[in-house]
Design brief:
Layout (H helix, E strand, L loop, with lengths): L8 H8 L4 E7 L2 E8 L2 E9 L5 E5 L2 E5 L3 E5 L2 E6 L3 E6 L3 E5 L2 E6 L2 E7 L3 E4 L3 E4 L2 E4 L10 E5 L2 E4 L2 E4 L4 E5 L2 E7 L2 E6 L4 E5 L1 E4 L6 E7 L2 E6 L3 E5 L4 E5 L7 E3 L7
Antiparallel strand pairs: 1-2, 1-27, 2-3, 4-5, 5-6, 6-7, 8-9, 9-10, 10-11, 12-13, 13-14, 15-16, 16-17, 17-18, 19-20, 20-21, 21-22, 23-24, 24-25, 25-26
Length: 257
């Protein structure tokens, strides 16, 4: 399906049958919710209309960093506070960073865990920053210019590293790293998507990719100009969202009930 094609009758039947899952994209226009099923990209709309810098999902929950941290609900979204937060994630609960601090949401409020500057992503017990990886205790865990983290991997301006000893596994600048389904994806500074499954290969994604996601159904990606990409094994299919400034993508690993 080309970027400007309408959804076919067959695709509409797929979505009507309930086999679609939601994907969430943080963009300048807001947080977009996109219906996907395998490599079929369906309806989309804005779940939050404030500019979004990050989005994360966990066990059916979806949170985004907008004018403050917001959690999606069945009938909209709930404002959780923390203006100035630019990254959000899940690690023993909702964790966010920005405005000089890292904090965890609990009992209706935010508890500061550590002082951090220029955060770029939340990992498991750590936060990525422009000056390196920082633990939730505020201590440096090494590296420099970290753009993203996933599991034990860190994407940096100097290469892709595997922790805990930060072994270099690929030279070059990287903006995102994704793990799941026993696979590893990395997005280069130039927007190429690389996959490592024994050997490295370029997935030849159309456009400059900002972020990617892995599920059992396939690979998903969002380009910086707001084109949603899906590959279920037969090559990329695309749909233009018309939402500029796309930054982050999150796709739940399980479909909602």
């Amino acid at each position: 399906m080309s970027a400007d094609e309408d959804i076919s009758l067959e695709e509409k039947r797929v979505y009507a049958g309930g086999s679609a899952r939601p994907a969430f994209v943080a963009t300048d226009a807001g947080l977009a919710r996109v219906s996907v099923s395998g490599d079929l990209v369906g309806e989309f709309g804005l779940a939050v209309r404030e500019s979004a810098t990050d989005v994360a999902t966990d066990d059916g929950r979806v949170v985004a960093a907008t004018d403050e941290i917001r959690q999606l609900t069945d009938d909209g979204n709930q404002a959780l506070g923390f203006p100035g937060a630019t990254v959000v994630g899940f690690s023993g609960g909702i964790v966010a960073a920005g405005d000089g601090r890292l904090a965890r949401y609990d009992d209706g409020g935010w508890t500061t865990l550590a002082e951090v500057e220029h955060p770029t992503a939340i990992g498991d017990g750590v936060v990525a920053t422009e000056s390196g990886v920082v633990g939730f205790d505020g201590r440096s865990r090494g590296l420099d210019a970290v753009r993203d983290m996933s599991s034990k991997y860190a994407a940096t301006a100097d290469g892709l590293f595997r922790g805990p000893d930060w072994e270099l596994i690929r030279d070059g600048g990287f903006r995102a790293v994704v793990t799941g389904e026993r696979r590893l994806l990395a997005v280069t500074d130039s927007g190429n998507v690389l996959e490592r499954d024994g050997e490295w290969r370029d997935l030849d994604a159309p456009g400059e990719v900002a972020d990617a996601a892995l599920t059992a159904d396939g690979i998903y990606a969002i380009t910086v100009d707001g084109t949603f990409l899906a590959d279920a094994g037969d090559g990329w299919r695309s749909r233009v969202l018309g939402l500029p400034g796309a930054r982050r993508l999150a796709v739940p690993t399980a479909r909602p009930e």
